[in-house]
Design a protein that fits this description.
alpha+beta, four-stranded antiparallel beta sheet, three-stranded antiparallel beta sheet
């Protein structure tokens, strides 16, 4: 996934075919909908696939059943039974991952990668498909293909719900930039929301001087 993000600049080198359109798919509330136990199972399986964990981290965890149990217990301790307060009452989070946990990006990306693998196996992942955490940009041939992929995404897992946005006037906002169609090529520019006023920080506000000077 990280490699795909760095390669996103290659979008300017693509040739757009007649009938192609830009589409972005976004997961609705990804972090709070990540199925924790299922994702832990995926992580444990991947960590010891072809002895990856021992080879890459210089460990010697043996035997296989014991090391998988240990990693599973560590992950469960780190991400499950999270407490939070709402309306003065204390609750326990039963699923999803806590927003401030340092393991959140790993858990979310691991789960999304597994979803993509299933979609690819079913032939529902297109040649140009770039994702950053919960936002995906793709180029499809027409509205019908976009809607077919949209249905496939929403049927991929009961915990996941996707939204779809299609280009308007040859432009599609994605990750803080505008992706622009220029005949059969692509260009990009900084995207500013319609509500943007251009004001970053009022100089008379009660904020440390160094932050004002930085702005």
């Amino acid at each position: 996934m990280i490699k795909d993000i760095f390669e996103f600049a290659d979008v300017r080198n693509l040739n757009i075919q007649e009938g192609d359109i830009f589409v972005s798919y976004d997961v609705f509330s990804l972090f709070t909908n990540v199925p924790v136990d299922e994702t832990i199972d995926i992580l444990v399986k991947q960590a010891f696939n072809e002895d990856w964990f021992n080879k890459n981290h210089g460990t010697n965890l043996q035997p296989a059943q014991q090391r998988e149990l240990l990693l599973r217990e560590l992950l469960q301790t780190a991400v499950k039974n999270q407490l939070f307060q709402f309306d003065g009452n204390l609750y326990e989070q039963v699923d999803g991952v806590a927003m401030d946990s340092p393991l959140v990006p790993l858990m979310a990306d691991t789960f999304m990668t597994s979803i993509e693998a299933k979609l690819k196996a079913d032939g529902n992942i297109l040649d140009f498909n770039k994702r950053c955490v919960d936002d995906t940009f793709t180029i499809v041939n027409g509205i019908a293909t976009a809607e077919t992929l949209y249905r496939a995404l929403n049927n991929a897992h009961p915990s996941m719900s996707f939204t779809m946005e299609i280009e308007v006037g040859g432009k599609l906002p994605f990750l803080g930039m505008n992706i622009i169609r220029e005949e059969n090529t692509i260009n990009t520019e900084v995207y500013r929301k319609p509500t943007n006023t251009g004001l970053l920080l009022h100089y008379q506000c009660h904020t440390n001087e160094r932050y004002k000077r930085a702005c």
